[in-house]
Specification:
about 325 residues, alpha/beta, Rossmann fold, N-(1-d-carboxylethyl)-l-norvaline Dehydrogenase, domain 2, 2 domains, eight-stranded mixed beta sheet, 8 strands, about 10% strand, globular, binds NADPH dihydro-nicotinamide-adenine-dinucleotide phosphate, binds 1,3-dihydroxyacetonephosphate, G3P_DH_NAD-dep_N, phospholipid metabolism, glycerol-3-phosphate dehydrogenase (NADP+) activity
Length: about 325
């Protein structure tokens, strides 16, 4: 049994906290909203983010970092990607010396281009920093449905030991030492899911969606490898696995966001879609590495209002004809 602290009382933080509590760990949640913390601790629900899902009675949440992080052995960072740096800075004064930190948000810091583990590592340089990522909807995990994820730590043995410790009936963890690779899939699949959503919302057909997923995956691999990911990691749960989930279910907020854009609907009230915040920096990084990413680039243009969904379709369809796998020829 481990003492786990979870930073973030949104859908994913709360779902992970519930799942690890059910697996017998001593879990404490931190959230910035005192009323949500009170609801989790006393009513065992988080209506705003997880509707009627029932949380374990022994799970408590607090807006006080000192209380949340007391004696923590493992700390999961689960605030939205662009706020990870802020919450990591807030945690500095309260973290036990040996706590292992795990980045759970999916996105690239749009000020620095850093992955989540790099952001955390910069603020908290004396700690081991790992990554938890893979195909997993909070709505499934909070209900105890089976999920498999990648747990990456800088050393394989350490990852293996922690994967063993944290796996249980509902969460099965696969160990990896590719911390960069385990974050690229989760960050870029959000952008691809928006692109595929635009295609769905624009009524472009299932064949076009399959083409976008496949060509989007080719971009994800090209850019991921340039950023330091191992190709096999991108083929795994945190890459292909998450791309498949997010591009095929309307439970995905990124996919749903894309659908709304494709239909020409107002997106201002929609839930967090991390791809919207990652697309520009991902395109910047691709340009820096001279990696061709037409799907991501087109998605960026549509999302910033500089291109219509129809124009995106004709742009992608009229690109020069080329080999499917130029790198193998
Ligand atoms: N939902 C899912 O199924 C999954 C999500 N993820 C990833 O987890 C991350 C978090 O997503 P998720 O929990 O779903 O998001 P939600 O939108 O459900 O919740 C976001 C939470 O973060 C809080 N928050 C927002 N800004 C800040 C800030 N600046 N400082 C501290 N807390 C803040 C919000 O608090 P408040 O209520 O006060 O606004 C809220 O509790 C994302 O990167 C997402 O991609 C990964 C796997 C699955
Ligand atoms: O990352 C997720 C599933 O693995 C959740 O996807 P959305 O953020 O698009 O809902």
């Amino acid at each position: 049994m481990s003492r786990i602290s979870v930073i973030g009382t949104g859908a994913w933080g709360t779902a992970l906290a519930a799942a690890f509590t059910r697996q017998g760990h001593d879990v404490r949640l931190w959230g910035r909203n005192a009323a949500t913390c009170e609801e989790i601790s006393r009513q065992h629900s988080n209506q705003a983010y997880l509707g009627d899902a029932r949380l374990p009675e022994s799970l408590t949440a607090t807006p006080d970092m000192t209380v949340a992080l007391e004696d923590a052995e493992i700390v999961l960072f689960v605030a939205p990607a662009q706020s990870t740096g802020d919450v990591a800075a807030q945690a500095t004064a309260h973290l036990p010396q040996d706590a292992v930190l795990i980045a759970c948000a999916k996105g690239i810091d749009n000020r620095t281009g850093q992955t989540q583990s790099e952001v955390i590592g910069e603020k908290l340089p004396d700690h081991v920093v790992g990554v938890l990522s893979g195909p997993s909807f909070a709505a499934d995990v909070v209900r105890g449905l089976p999920t498999a994820l990648t747990l990456a730590l800088p050393e394989q043995e350490m990852a293996q030991a922690l994967a063993q410790e944290l796996s249980g009936d509902a969460i099965r963890l696969y160990a990896s030492d590719d911390t960069i690779g385990a974050q690229i899939g989760g960050s870029l699949k959000n952008v691809m899911a928006i692109a595929v959503g635009i295609c769905r919302g624009g009524g472009m057909g299932a064949s076009a969606e399959a083409a976008l997923i496949t060509r989007g995956y080719a971009e994800l691999v090209r850019l991921g490898v340039a950023m330091g990911a191992r190709p096999e990691t991108l083929m795994g749960l945190s890459g292909l696995g998450d791309l498949v989930l997010t591009c095929s279910s309307e439970l995905s907020r990124n996919f749903a966001y894309g659908i709304a854009v494709g239909r020409g609907q107002d997106v201002s009230g929609l839930k967090l879609a991390e791809g919207v915040h990652t697309v520009s920096i991902a395109n910047e990084i691709a340009a820096r590495h001279a990696i061709s990413c037409p799907v991501m680039q087109t998605a960026g243009l549509v999302l910033s209002g500089r291109m219509s969904a129809d124009k995106a379709r004709t742009t992608l369809m009229s690109r020069p004809i080329k080999a499917e796998h130029p790198e193998t020829r």
